[in-house]
Amino acid sequence: MSSSTTTRMPRAQRRSQLLNLATRVFTERGYHGTSMDDIAGAAGVTKPVLYQHFSSKETLYVEVIDIIADELLAGVRAIGDFEGETTGRVRYGLEQFFHLVSVQNSLRLFTGNEAISDAVHERAAKVLDQMAVQLADVLMASRRMSPTQSRVIGRGLLADTQTTALLLDTATDDAEREEILQVMTSYMVHGLTGFDPLENPQIGGSVLGADGTARTGADG
Which SUPFAM superfamilies does this one have (predicted)? Predict the structure, then answer.
């Protein structure tokens, strides 16, 4: 090891350095592909030094989630600062979430597909709850709705956002990604009324169009 990597640091500074390096290594290799030896090596310290700051790999990983979460929550707050109409704001939010989880390589974690431990799952779930509350605040700043209504809708929008991120991640080209963004943006802004109903719907009852006109279904 070089003298620069073994220089003694104040405890708080060393801990911050280890967290930043762990975030980089975890996002590059994933939880199961990373060992404490890998992180210690990247930091230029011995494994006992690493364990002085973090009792286990799982404990360290949960703190890494917190670092990523801060960026995600800041991204949600930025949606409220977006200057434009509702459709543009929703699309911006979808793109922001996908960009953040892609850069941090944390898509599986924040879409519920990274099963590591109960502690990790609970922390990720808490982050998603916080994001839903932030979305609720954005909604209440522009719509007449109660706190309960905004929280329910916030959680629903977040679920749609997670689904969109998964679809964008598996899209084969820019054209498909653009179509996904357009479809999900329209759905989140207008619901099913954003899509023109058939002239003769093949379902019972009636189908409401975006203009408020109802078309009677086959059994109506």
Answer: Homeodomain-like (SSF46689)
Long-range contacts of 24-32 (CB under 8 A, 24+ apart): 26/61, 26/64, 27/104, 27/105, 27/106, 28/105, 30/105, 31/57, 31/61, 31/114, 31/116, 31/120, 32/116
pLDDT tens column, 92-127: 888 888 887 776 666 666 665 556 788 888 887 888
Decide: pTM greater than 0.90. no
- Residue 200 main-chain phi, psi, to 5 deg: -130, 80
Domains of the chain: 13-54 (1.10.10.60), 56-194 (1.10.357.10)
208 φ, ψ to 5°?
-90, 130
